[in-house]
Amino acid sequence: MGWSDAYNYLRGSVAAKPADDALPLGARIGSLVGIQQSPLLRAVADGSLIGLPEAADTRIVAVSQLRLKQSGGLYRYYLDTGDRDDQEKFLQVYQNASGEVSEIMYCTQLARVIPQTVEDQDAYTGQSGAGLGDRSYTLWRQQLEDDPGLDLDLIFGASDGLDYWRDAGDPEAGFMPPFTGTEVRLDDASGRTGLRQEMYFMPYVRQLRGGGHEYLLITTEIIHSVNGDTSKCGIHVDFVIGIPVEQQRIVIQ
Hints:
By secondary structure, this protein is mainly beta. Helices cover 11% and strands 39% of the residues. The strands form 2 sheets. It has an 8-stranded antiparallel barrel with strand order 2-3-4-5-11-10-9-8. A two-stranded antiparallel sheet has the order 1-12. The longest helix has 8 residues, at 3-10.
């Protein structure tokens, strides 16, 4: 099923064509994925928050395209959608305007927050001119103390917080409106299951102790439909950690 057909189906209409569009790296739902883990292990040793792939994380279970106001194409190949336990894992692939894959990140979900007030929603969508899109973002140690899978002493050292800097726009600007767009996720090859959601997105980055970079992707997601059902809607904010991985370290077949 093509992306436009899948989009129409998830809006509630029946798709016209059953053919998949070609995805970067030849990916398909059901494809096997092999990731050489040395960049991830090195990042963890340098204090990264990234979660390592588990033995079962070998197959693409869903694919999506993020339609943001930028050139090129941004895709996510999910190894785990996180629908059951809020633990998304995916490869984020950026294909430039020339059709070349220029960036791949392995990403794992750190946390999910539900905005409770109108003020919270305005902050996480940047509608108030502050919040998502600020020049920097700090993750505090106390926010992560309930996560038994993190070595907080290794990650934070003597610090109480980790400072990330916006990876977009003028680095001196105090605020930049977040990127906006939609994500259409296909959970099966025919495109009959999946979701469609509106997105407010901003990438932040920090330098790890060994010199590498760790990305904090903050995305406010407003779900419009699930499996074509528009009654299944909601809003949440996902905090995702990403580590760049060279293309030659990934095999998709």
